[in-house]
Specification:
Number of strands: 0
Largest sheet: none
Distance between the termini: 57 Å
Helix content: 55-70%
Mean pLDDT: 89
Shape: flat
Number of helices: 5
Strand content: under 5%
Radius of gyration: 21 Å
């Protein structure tokens, strides 16, 4: 009886699905421009299949109560382990979704403060310094020098 799939199976499946979607979207690119994206997505598809196979082998071992060897930098996936990366991913998704509505500089400032908070940095000076330096650098480089139009929302 299958108890649970190894986390490599889930990771490989997510990467495989994303790679296939990206690969299908390359059809909208000019023929010369789609060579490199197709190569990268093809490589990702191949590696994700290898990851799924490796995860399936680990799943079979775990379900047969055999020892699964984890390398030094790998550990069994637990909620505690992925809580911070998932929180940052949610912050980035909200950043992308809200940027056209609220504006680039406001959302970038909120994203930076959110990530600093998630990373457990509680120094107000760090918040102010990171936000100001990043916003000023982006404004001077992209808006003033390169004259790139950044998304403006209801605030800025």
């Amino acid at each position: 009886m299958l108890k649970a799939l190894h986390h490599d199976v889930y990771t490989g499946a997510v990467i495989l699905i994303a790679s296939v979607i990206f690969s299908l979207n390359t059809s909208q690119l000019p023929e010369d421009a789609r060579v490199y994206p197709l190569f990268v997505t093809g490589l990702l598809i191949f590696l994700s299949i290898l990851l799924i196979i490796d995860g399936a082998k680990k799943t079979i071992k775990e379900n047969n109560n055999q020892h699964v060897h984890y390398s030094d930098d790998e550990e069994k996936l637990r909620l505690k382990t992925i809580k911070m990366p998932v929180a940052i991913l949610i912050a980035i998704v909200l950043y992308v979704l809200m940027m056209p509505i609220i504006g680039f500089f406001v959302m970038t400032s909120l994203l930076l403060m959110s990530v600093l908070f998630i990373l457990k940095n509680r120094s107000v000076l760090t918040y102010i310094g990171v936000v100001l330096i990043t916003d000023i650098f982006i404004y001077i480089l992209f808006v003033q020098m390169l004259q790139v139009r950044l998304p403006q929302g209801i605030l800025f």
